[in-house]
Amino acid sequence: MANYDMNHDPLGTKFAALADPTRRAILARLALGETSVSELAKPFAMSLPAVSKHLKVLENAGLIGRSREAQWRPCRIEPEALKEVDGWLEQYRRLWEERFDRLDTYLKTLQAKEKKPRAAPKRRRPPR
Fold first, then answer.
1. Contact status, residue 103 vs residue 57, Cβ threshold 8 Å
2. CB neighbours of residue 5 within 10 Å
3. Predicted pLDDT of residue 60
């Protein structure tokens, strides 16, 4: 198999970045608004350089952006990048919704069968 180049698969790069729980937690925090690297690092038991590496992965995937305001380098989420991920997932969301609808119909059919009164079983007379 030939070597796979993530640079030619932006969606794959996004999913690879989202695979890490720390990066997902960083994105969840950035969904509340932009903030500094030091603020992002506070809840994690890791060094600032380690958090910066996670931010670099998120930035390379296009999921976050960074700017510079004097000494402050705020990070912000890039919602458009998440729309691409959501668009890809949408086809599977529809698939699962259809399957759940079929399962719901099947369960209702089973429940309706259970509610039907059953005829009382005939009693057998004991042999004499």
1. no
2. 8
3. 95
Tell me the C-alpha distance between 11 and 97, whole Å: 23
Q: Is residue 16 part of a domain?
A: yes
Name the token pair of 120.
Answer: 């009382």
* CATH assignment of the domain containing 18: 1.10.10.10
Contacts of 15 (CB under 8 A, 6+ apart): 85
pLDDT digits 0-9 by tens, 23-63: 999 999 999 999 998 899 999 988 989 999 999 999 999 99
> Which residue range(s) make up the domain with 60?
7-78
pLDDT surpasses 60 at 4? no
In this prediction, residue 106 carries a pLDDT of 87
DSSP alpha helix (H) spans, the chain? 10-18, 21-30, 37-41, 48-60, 79-115
Cα separations (Å) of 35 from 19, 55, 74, 92? 22, 12, 5, 33
Number of domains in the chain: 1
Question: CA–CA separation, 97 vs 80, rounded Å?
Answer: 25
Q: With respect to residue 40, please indicate whether it lies within any of the assigned structural domains.
A: yes
103 belongs to a structural domain: no
